Amino acid sequence: MNIERLKRQIKEHEGVRKKAYKDSLGNWTIGVGHLIKLPDEHNLLQVSLADVHVDQLFLIDLNQAIDDARKFIDANDVPEEIFEVVVNMAFNLGLTKLLQFKKFQKALKEKDFIKASEEMLNSRWARQLPNRSQELANIMRDA
Q: How does pLDDT run across 72-90, given as a tens digit for each residue?
């Protein structure tokens, strides 16, 4: 896994914001797509994060996404670019929602990356995030 490429890609998809904002689904978010967990992180609604704190939150969330992706598919069973796509999806969706992509997961296990890309695009996630999903599906398809 190329962690620097993955970090750049996720930052590009999520954006970087030092102040809390509501995402497209109306959830309070800060940093690099960090979902603010209320009431535990209520203080994040009123602050402007320093770069170092943005990076700290991002690394915590990225490590969680990597762990979640490993629960979804064995990283050793797919090319690194494919695993990075799964990590990106896990970062955005979380494990619970990612696990709903059963046909996608089956296609990955069968190494049918064209079918996997089709399953990615055949989802509410793809309709909500058409640019991100298309870019990731293209990576998947071309692997």
A: 999 999 999 999 999 999 9
Phi, psi values for residue 10, rounded to 5°: -65, -40
What is the rounded average pLDDT of the residues 42-62?
A: 95
CA 53-57-2 angle, 5° bins: 115
* Predicted TM-score of the model (pTM): 0.95
Closest CA to 61 of 44, 78, 77, 48: 44
3-142: CATH topology is Lysozyme (1.10.530)
Q: Write the single-letter amino acid at 57.
A: L
CA gap 135, 18 in Å, rounded: 26
Cα-to-chain-centroid distance, residue 69: 9
